[in-house]
Amino acid sequence: MIYIQTLGGLSVRDSDGKPIAGTGTQPRRMAVLALLARAGDWGMSRDKILALLWPDAEDERGPRALTQALYALRKNLGSDDAITGARELRLDPAFVSSDASEFASAVSRGDDGRAVALYQGPFLDGFNLTGAEEFARWVDQERASLASDYSRALESLARATRAKGDAHESVMWWRKLAAIEPLNSRVAVGLMEALASSGDRTAAIQHARVYEMLVEQQLDLPADKEVVGLARRLRAMADERAAPESTAPPPASPPATPPASALGTSEAVPAAGIVRESVTSPPVRAPVSGPGRSIARVASIVIGVAAVAAVVLVARSRSSRGAASIDATLPVVAVGNIATFGTDSTGLTAPVADLLTTSLARVPTIRVISHGRMLELMHSLGFTTDTGQRGLVNAARQAGATEVVDGTLYARPGGRLRLDLRRVDLATGAIGDVHTVEGNDLFALVDSGTARLLASLGSPVPAGSVADVTTRSVTAYRMYENGIRAYYRGDLHTALGFFDGALGEDSLFALAAYYAALSDGGVTTYSDRMERAKRLAVRASDRERLTILVGWARTVSSPAMRAIAETLATRYPAETEGHLYSGIARVVEGDFLAAIAPLQRVVAMDSLGLRGGRARCSGCEALAGIVSAYQLADSLPTAEREARRWLRLQPNSLTAVAALVNVLELAGRGVEADSLMQAATAGRELPYAKTVDFRAAHLIRAGEYAAADSILRAQLREPDPQQQANALWDLAISLREQGRLADAVTAAHRIRAANARIAGWANAPSLNELEAQALLEAGRPSAAAALFDSLAQQHAPTDAPSRRARGSAWMLTQSAGARAAAGDTASLARLADSIGALGEQSGYGRDRRLHHHVRGLLFAARGADRQAIDELKSAIYSISAGYTRTNYELARVYLHAGRPRDAVAVLQPVLRGPLDASNLYLNRIELQELLAQAWDATGQRDSAAAHYSVVARAWSNGDALFKARAERARSRAAGLGR
């Protein structure tokens, strides 16, 4: 059974939950599926589909395009019956189901719980089609209709649970509804009544204040009278309950210990720290420990509280998009400014804030904004040096926090530490609880502060100490904290020194190991460091453990990456990492369009980070992922739109420029790309090697080989072995395209020596894939197969199993291709089985499909065209940027089967692939030659002649074999031109 997801994105998966690949995943064809999924049993007419997707097509071109789309979709879905009908098209429910149809069915039968569970986000969220305005309008209408049904279902659940007497569950449903309809007075009243029924009148009154503020800010209108009146009645009820208590006589003497309601159970307070006071503000009280000290202490609390309140009230006018993504049923806490009183505690404030954040985050009943996220936002807001209250409060609001905790740190006699902590409501500026704790050391202090804060929040206190998930060395933690600050301001060299210093103090410090990996620019050392961090992750808190594991999973291509990322995103939705890695995991798996929604969410969450450069920009990574996803889906117009959007957000970013330049190059607009790059780099000192790489690649793609070779040969005279290796790599690609394969093999072979010099030792593993590829194209397939076999065994000793499996599967697939070219098909079946088993151990979607490529070669060798076509189509990861040998072999089978138009369809996208990635696996001029033959077979003389002419020019000075093929191409082009 095929399943189409349209709510929260657009993706298609098979019965095993794996994304469907192939030509049917092109955006316009996916749009056809979305239309039919939404239409359900009613179906949709061909005329309406044409009007929505091909409104400007000529009389014949539109219907022909739809017919081709339906053909491709039926093949991808695995059955010609998956889409039925002649005039009215519909999905056959026996083969295909969708969340859209299930949602509509649940709504129609009144199954509100099922409807809400199915609604994972807006209809076709993140899916766009260039040049299809009617389709965009249809999406907007359907999105609004579905969102309305979702809102009705939420309200129905909220009212039904309230009627059953379950006020707490009713609050949950009302909160979900209020999150999407914050300005709806009926919803505000419903939530307030549910909160009051559950016994939380304070929260009901607070929601009224939030509603009033939003209406004033966004609509410039007064709040609804019903909301205001209900809030007034609730306040009056609260005042009536409080009045008798206020007249009660005070106790004759203060209790020896705070009441149990303030402290919680005795187990809640770690033995290493002593809780001194719990005060609900106002008033603020201080213990009697000397007049001067008491006055100073009261003054510090009042000043600190007043400053935070002032910042909150000033910042109330700034709405935070980040807050909308947080589950409103849980408090969201950020740790703000920790000030010092005196000089003895100077240097401990930053570690206290970081440790307190880590410690509070161990509890699943609250959400805590991570220290790294706060630093990111501080830099984005322009507070690069000022870490005071104003910047931290603004960062907390931007992160979606509902309250901020700040405090003052004191050094006590005998080396003890005291910490005054305060809670401030970010929506109102109201001051909550004030607590004082003491401890013998930094970790005991934080443990005590954690216990007191969690007790006031009504949350359980985690077992053990924060030192159990960080380090027990104060020196190590202070060095780590210095490293974190250097990392987020972009000084990676300094950061790495601090992290290594922290590891020197405590070799088991997981977070120091993880950030050391992120700060290390070396490819080999980065992998080794990440492996070390992964081994130590068991000593980190849940959030840090998941963050380390997902970073490691990405490094080693682990199939667990997506599951870890989604767990991280679910548990900590206020952090960007989970959403970012969820999107990246989908791209890696081959579910390109489904990746857009989580990546766009990161862009929205990190919108401030896109204002300027910094060491770590989640929004930048997400935009790069979005551009790549559209490129891989062969949707270059959409990729260009996203790249231009990125450049508008960051006009001075060379990374954004490079993304747009790359898209333009792939789209065949080389002159425009070159002009953009020159304009962007004017007046900037770029590394010479990067300039050479770009310029050479541009010239090779344009067919200006002599100019490219001249630049690259000059680069070979540079003393740096890395520059030499890069130049040899590009030179080998250029020589391959010119048909000078003997020279290409020599250039590729020379890379071995350069790699050995880079590694610094004579026996470094320096075999390279490009040399084997050049041997294959030079007519030496057996030698190529032997080299590919050797590469399949070339692993670093510390490589993870998934990384070994990925490398072996990839090289064995290319070895199988070389064996097939040599006429040796006896081993292909066995190799296909091995590659299939290895591919399952890799998280890379291409690897999981490679065995189909080998089976396709075997069927093709046997003349079984139908089976070969099915297998080769199943092998396609990306039609334009996957393993392009698959496209080539599939086109050859199509031609053999008398289907030249299908051959053209799978060959043309390859020309839109990257020069040193997907086009590395196939000589692009051989591709042009086969494309010319395919056009020739269709009778398209002009197209065939154009491609034959490219072949004739490129191979005019090639080796004898290629020169002969160039002559044949020239002759055929001339014949077609007559």
Describe the structure.
The protein is an alpha/beta fold and 978 residues long. It has six domains: 2-150, Orthogonal Bundle (Arc Repressor Mutant, subunit A); 165-237, Serine Threonine Protein Phosphatase 5, Tetratricopeptide repeat; 267-281 and 291-470, Rossmann fold, CATH 3.40.50.10070; 540-683, Serine Threonine Protein Phosphatase 5, Tetratricopeptide repeat, CATH 1.25.40.10; 687-766, Serine Threonine Protein Phosphatase 5, Tetratricopeptide repeat (Alpha Horseshoe); 787-977, Alpha Horseshoe (Serine Threonine Protein Phosphatase 5, Tetratricopeptide repeat). The protein contains 44 helices and twelve strands. The strands form three sheets. The protein has a six-stranded mixed sheet with strand order 7-12-11-10-8-9. A three-stranded mixed sheet has the order 2-1-6. Strand 10 (403-411) and strand 11 (417-425) form a beta hairpin. It is globular.
What is the CATH architecture term of the largest domain?
A: 3-Layer(aba) Sandwich
Report the C-alpha radius of gyration, rounded: 32 Å
Fraction in helix? 55-70%
Kindly name the structural category.
alpha/beta
Describe the global form. Answer: globular
What is the third-level CATH name, the topology of the largest domain? Rossmann fold
Whole-number total of structural domains = 6
Intertermini distance: 53 Å
Contiguous low-pLDDT stretches (5 residues minimum) are 244-327
**Biggest β-sheet: strands ordered side by side in the sheet:** 7-12-11-10-8-9
- Provide the residue-averaged pLDDT: 81
Q: What share of the residues does DSSP label as strand, in percent? A: 5-15%
**Quick one: biggest sheet?**
6 strands, mixed
